[in-house]
Each structure stands twice: as C-alpha cells, then as structure tokens.
Amino acid sequence: MGLWPALSLWNVYRQGTMPRRILMQGFREDISSILVEAAGFWQGKDPFHAYQLPRAITLLRQGLGRLIRSGRDYGIMALMDSRGRYRGYGRTIQWELRPHPPSFVHGGS
C-alpha cells in the first residue's frame, strides 16, 4: 500500500507549487494539512533556533548522559567555544542542561 495513499486524508502543501507566502498561509490555516519542503525552504527563516540549537542540545545531553551514568560518577562538561557563554543562546543551553550546566571556557583572543 505505501504512504502516498494515506496522504489523501490530508491537504498537502508542497514547496514550489505556489508562492511561499500563500503556501505558508494555507498551511497555517488548514489544521488537516501537511507541509512538504526542501532544505532551501529554511532560507530567510531561523534554522539555527528552530533546528540546529535543539539538535546541539540533544547531542550535549547524550554526551552528558554518557559522562554521568550513576550517582557515583563525576565529570566536567566544558564547551570550548566562548560564543556559548556570550551569545544569547548560551543561556538556553545552560537552562536546557540543568541541573548540570556546562562550563564555558574562554580561549582569550
């Protein structure tokens, strides 16, 4: 059977079939819709906060989970990129990794 017959239950909005503004308006207003897009669709949007930052936080959590596996384990998570401390997203990283926020190391330049 496959996936495509099941899509007939939904209104499918596909990138490239209409102007982006109209496509997004229809998708937002139609609760029974699916948006099919390509990576280029993110241009002009904020893929860093929408995709890259959450992915980075997930990877950091996984790394922390491998570092600290039990109450007897200890370790230090150090992010060697000072942007994580001095940019706004650093607070997001620290908040998401609580109660074990990383140490940020400033490399001096």
Give the overall form.
Answer: elongated
Taking pLDDT < 50 over at least 5 consecutive residues as the criterion, the unreliable ranges are none
Q: Return Rg in Å.
A: 20 Å
Which oligomeric form is depicted?
Answer: single chain
Would you tell me the structural class of the helices and strands? alpha/beta
Described by strand count, sense and barrel closure, the largest sheet is:
2 strands, parallel
Account of the protein in words:
- This protein is α/β, with parallel strands linked by helices and 109 residues long.
- It has 2 domains: 4-42, no CATH class; 47-104, no CATH class.
- It is 40% helix and 11% strand.
- The chain has 4 helices and 4 strands.
- Strand 1, helix 1 and strand 2 (33-36) form a beta-alpha-beta unit.
- The longest helix is centred in the middle third of the chain and has 21 residues, at 47-67.
Give me a quick take on this structure.
The chain is α/β, with parallel strands linked by helices. The protein folds into two domains: 4-42, no CATH class; 47-104, no CATH class. The protein is built from four helices and four strands; from the N terminus they run βαβαβααβ.
